[in-house]
UniProtKB/TrEMBL annotation:
GO terms for cellular component: cytosol. This is Adenosylhomocysteinase like 2. The lineage of its organism: Eukaryota, Metazoa, Chordata, Craniata, Vertebrata. Residues 37-46 have a biased composition (Basic residues). The keyword NAD applies. Belongs to the adenosylhomocysteinase family.
Length: 512
């Protein structure tokens, strides 16, 4: 039997992950239209069609990033940190102090990762683990990367998105000796070059992959398939990347075990619900300065994201309508006090339209034509397919960029609608995401890496695994001290009565 996920004495260390079932989740039509962006294809063309995850505008860090006029590509610069290392490629190493402050601020809201670091002072569960990572490079992921390093890992990192890197954070990481290859505003060619520099270093064979979107995994499959002989596992965060892994598994091409972090309860419940509950208001305010009290809003889709958005708007005094296709979620909306309507019934009167269905063409040109003057239209779903933005690119309509990420689309009679982020994810494009929520996901990623790295031969096959409830409960428990929360313990008698182990798991694996 291998090591416990929490690798030490805790209330959880009796339960191990080898019982994890490789449950495969069926995703609905996930075809995504890739954002068409001008890309600067440079000298060494490594490119393939770039993925959604790497191009979605993600500007939560934008306000902090380097706005210097230095147009020289980081690839053409000689770079060295204060210790003389040049095994990195970033925008500007001089920003390191600024980046370090950003990381320290994030650390305050990432208590579980900091707790893992404390525990690692005695033992290093990732000792010898060569981890190659591809995620957004922000203050929050820096806390994760530095935690992995504290746990004993040697990390090399690239960005999963060409716009999301906080340059000063990349500088702070490089200064501490991390091999980071990323800057804000990479070209498509730069993007693959950075990934390649992470993976392809003589004498450095990765043991673990931490991916967000699947591009790094894809690159290794395409360019260095032999590396998989020594790779112990993949941890994948995003819906897109997980979908790719299931496709590989179905085709019998997945050659190492993979952990699906995206579908863990802690990610779904917290990222989708609580993150959106806070960031929907932030995104709308930053872009439009709208006052919510008394406004009429319609939220399309009452899943986790829809529930968060609806609750936030209601709390601000807005009148909220909900649309749904699923009678169960529809009934939940009714019981939560929202009016369930068809979009066509309210489209003329509402001030704000928000899509969060994960579906396509939820708001179509006919709806857009009928909206009232000044109606705000935005999307909180994963891809930019929910609002038929392409249908607005017709000669009779005028587009006016009024602010970053804010377009007025004007009809011939003068009516205008306010389209946010051109129909892409509002919160990731126009606001920040709460650090505490990212802490929950990042902790899950760290524990998944530890588990895969330490698992004995045979515990995991070449399949995609969901995290067991036990690990979800452990991640949640690490965040409870922040709130000075006092968890009730089951008595022996109660545990027996419920048929549970006193230390959990407290719910079956299928519980959501
Ligand atoms: N913005 C963010 O930060 C963020 C965070 C997590 C997830 N997401 C994305 O948001 C989307 C929704 O996520 P979720 O967790 O709420 O999913 P979910 O499946 O729980 O909810 C989606 C709901 O939309 C309903 N729906 C589908 N088609 C519809 C239609 N035509 N009209 C009305 N309702 C319809 C479904 O019945 C479902 O109840 C996904 O694309 C997800 O990837 C965004």
């Amino acid at each position: 039997m291998g090591r416990c996920v929490c690798w030490g004495p805790c209330g959880y260390h009796n339960v191990h992950l080898h019982g994890t079932v490789g449950v495969q989740i069926q995703f609905a039509d996930q075809k995504q239209e890739f954002n068409k962006r001008p890309t600067k294809i440079g000298r060494r063309s490594l490119s393939r069609s770039i993925s959604q995850s790497s191009t979605d505008s993600y500007s939560s860090a934008a306000s902090y990033t380097d706005s210097s006029d230095d147009e020289t590509s980081p690839r053409d610069k000689q770079q060295k940190n204060s210790k003389g290392s040049s095994d990195f490629c970033i925008k500007n190493i001089k920003q390191t102090d600024f980046g370090r402050r950003e990381i320290e601020i994030a650390e305050q809201e990432m208590p579980a990762l900091m707790a893992l670091r404390k525990r690692a002072q005695g033992e290093k569960p990732l000792a010898g683990a060569k981890v190659v990572g591809c995620t957004h490079i922000t203050a929050q992921t820096a806390v994760l990367i530095e935690t992995l390093t504290a746990l004993g890992a040697q990390c090399r990192w690239a960005a999963c998105n060409i716009y999301s890197t906080q340059n000063e954070v990349a500088a702070a990481l490089a200064e501490r000796g991390l091999s980071v290859f990323a800057w804000k505003g990479e070209s498509e060619d730069d993007f693959w070059w950075c990934i390649d520099r992470c993976v392809n270093l003589e004498g450095w064979q990765p043991k673990m992959i931490l991916d967000d979107g699947g591009d790094l995994t894809h690159w290794i499959y395409k360019k260095y398939p032999n590396m998989f002989k020594k790779i112990k596992g993949i941890v994948e965060e995003s819906v897109t990347g997980v979908h790719r892994l299931y496709q590989l598994s179905k085709a019998g091409k997945l050659c190492v075990p993979a952990m699906n972090v995206n579908d863990s309860v802690t990610k779904q419940k917290f990222d989708n619900l609580y993150c959106c509950r806070e960031s929907i208001l932030d995104g709308l305010k930053r872009t439009t300065d709208v006052m919510f009290g008394g406004k009429q809003a319609v939220v399309c889709g009452y899943g986790e994201v829809g529930k968060g958005c609806s609750a936030a708007l209601k709390a601000m005094g807005a009148i909220v309508y909900v649309t749904e296709i699923d009678p169960i979620c529809a009934l939940q909306a009714c019981m939560d006090g929202f009016r369930l309507v068809k979009l066509s019934e309210v489209i003329r009167q509402v001030d704000i339209v928000i899509t969060c269905t994960g579906n396509k063409n939820v708001v179509v040109r006919e709806n857009l034509d009928r909206m009232k003057n000044g109606c705000i239209v935005c999307n909180m779903g994963h891809s930019n397919t929910e609002i038929d933005v392409a249908s607005l690119r017709t000669p009779e309509l005028t587009w006016e960029r009024v602010r970053s990420q804010v377009d007025h689309v004007i009809w011939p009679d003068g009516k205008r609608i306010v389209l946010l982020a051109e129909g892409r994810l509002l919160n990731l494009s126009c606001s920040t995401v709460p650090t505490f929520v990212l802490s929950i996901t990042a902790t899950t990623q760290a524990l998944a890496l530890i588990e895969l790295y330490n698992a004995p031969e045979g515990r995991y096959k070449q399949d995609v695994y969901l995290l067991p409830k036990k690990m979800d409960e452990y991640v949640a428990s690490l965040h409870l001290p922040t709130f000075d929360a006092h968890l009730t313990e089951l008595s022996e008698e109660q545990a027996k009565y419920l048929g549970l182990n006193k230390n959990g798991p407290f719910k079956p694996n299928y519980y959501r």
